[in-house]
Amino acid sequence: MAKILIQNVSVSYNGFQALKSVDLEVLANEILGIIGPANSGKSSLLRAINRLSEIDYAQVTGTILLDGENIDTLDRNTLRKRIGLIFATPVVLPGSIYKNISYGPKLHRRFGKKELDELVEHALRAGNLWDEVHDRLKDSASTLSGGQQQRLCIARSIAMDPEVIMMDEPCSGLDPISTAKIEATMLELKTKYTFILVTNNTKQAARVADRTAFFLSGELIEIDRTSRLFTSPKDPRTNDYISGRFG
User: Fold this and answer.
1) pTM beyond 0.85
2) Domains in the chain: ranges and CATH
3) pLDDT for 141-180, tens place per residue?
4) Which label site among 12, 47, 199, 245 has the fewest CB atoms less than 10 Å from its CB?
């Protein structure tokens, strides 16, 4: 069943077409990997899905459905609660680790202290971070390492109880150990959430993605089960990219 259905979607910035007539299904509870060289439209696709493209003054055409509902009919805050986006560089809020997790949920409703404590613990456990920070929740989030900050961003998204978590190069600046922890988190959580992972690391897509889509120059070239795409791609351009001939 399609969690997100993308139909004939194009994205342009001041006349430059970043995404060209893309049709794509994102299935519920899968990790969809999206690969491709720079300027292939990967990030533009993510920003169109949760309407961050509106901030960029991008021109978006086509239709994007979330559970069959056109995203243009949804309140933007509601949409972004349902579809979280985690960037390549972790963006932590000023203040404590606890505040980073609790701030978003408190905007939507009131919590008792015990309930909020439980929510923070649940989110940090889901983000594979609780064991490392449970005794320093009052510390500034900026004191965390880069990998911990990225997992904090994942936990912060989980605290909002999203349906889809999109990640735009979440491990690009991280060491292998931090990368492995984030990948483990995704694999553990996909039974509850749907993930879209944009990555320039083809090995990462091979490790965690159920299906992988290859984009090139704004076009969706090919999408298939990850094991099949990496061993028997149908398009020679896909084979050239994953074999390192370009990109």
Assistant:
1) yes
2) 2-92+162-242 (3.40.50.300)
3) 999 999 999 999 999 999 999 999 999 999 988 889 989 9
4) 245
